[in-house]
Design a protein that fits this description.
43% helix, alpha/beta, 9 strands, 242 residues, elongated, three-stranded parallel β-sheet, 10 helices, six-stranded parallel β-sheet
Length: 242
């Protein structure tokens, strides 16, 4: 039994192979594309993109906020590294603070140790409403408490944000898959694409000044989430093996 789990929100020919028994895809559009390429209807299952089970479990938001020493009534922007330079992050944080000093920030540098070191040696460390981390293994906690995320639009990250009801702001994209992911977010009003640092600042300030608009985006995320993809795929494969 051979199965192909398509982990983006757009179709790519590299996924298509006549030896594949089953395709597990994220959307109806990908299913249609596979059908157009001659794949048998019974081989295609719309399951969504699998995420770790922890993303589908309720977490204690208040407890996480207390561990961060954050105010539960003030908005939180989650910034995930990988697309931003140190100078970009400073411009974003200070630019937002200048227009809305209630915003709280969680900055994840990830595997970029150089970025982490510069952030930890910067004046941002003096702010109680800015928390800086390197590589984290519990991203679900930060997504649980955040109201917006600035991140790259990888397939798995996008799926995790949808499960968490976390609207995305996407700045830079890798041509191909990530563009498909961004377009899917935009089409479903669950995220926005920006062109530069100024637009990032404007988007964050705009959304945090309009709670109803942000709440609608969160609702749109939850409408298109498929939180049980991992279990559904595993159950189906096991049923076919049996």
């Amino acid at each position: 039994l051979s199965a192909n789990v398509c982990t983006d929100f757009g179709f790519h020919l590299v996924w298509h192979n006549p030896d594949i028994n089953y395709y597990f895809v994220a959307t109806e559009e990908i299913k249609k594309s596979l059908l157009d390429h001659g794949v048998n209807l019974n081989k295609i299952k719309i399951t969504g993109i699998p995420v770790r089970p922890i993303f589908n479990q309720p977490l204690d938001r208040q407890k996480i906020l207390e561990s961060l020493k954050f105010n539960y009534s003030q908005p939180i922007l989650l910034i995930v590294g990988g697309q931003l330079k140190y100078s970009d992050i400073l411009r974003i944080v200070y630019g937002i603070k200048e227009k809305n000093n209630l915003v709280q920030f969680v900055i994840i540098a990830g595997r970029d140790e150089f970025l982490l070191k510069k952030l930890e040696n910067s004046k941002l460390k003096n702010y109680t409403d800015v928390k800086i981390f390197g590589l984290v293994l519990d991203m679900e906690k930060f997504m649980t408490v955040s109201d917006l995320i600035l991140s790259k639009a990888g397939g798995s990250t996008t799926a995790e944000c949808l499960v968490k009801g976390l609207p995305m702001i996407v700045y830079k994209t890798i041509p191909g898959q990530e563009e498909d992911n961004v377009n899917y977010l935009i089409d479903n009003k669950a995220g926005i694409k920006v062109k530069n640092i100024r637009e990032i600042i404007e988007a964050v300030v705009d959304l945090f000044s309009q709670p109803d608009k942000l709440a609608k985006m969160k609702e749109n995320c939850l409408k298109i989430q498929k939180p049980n993809a991992s279990e559904d795929i595993a159950d189906f494969v096991i049923s076919q093996i049996k």
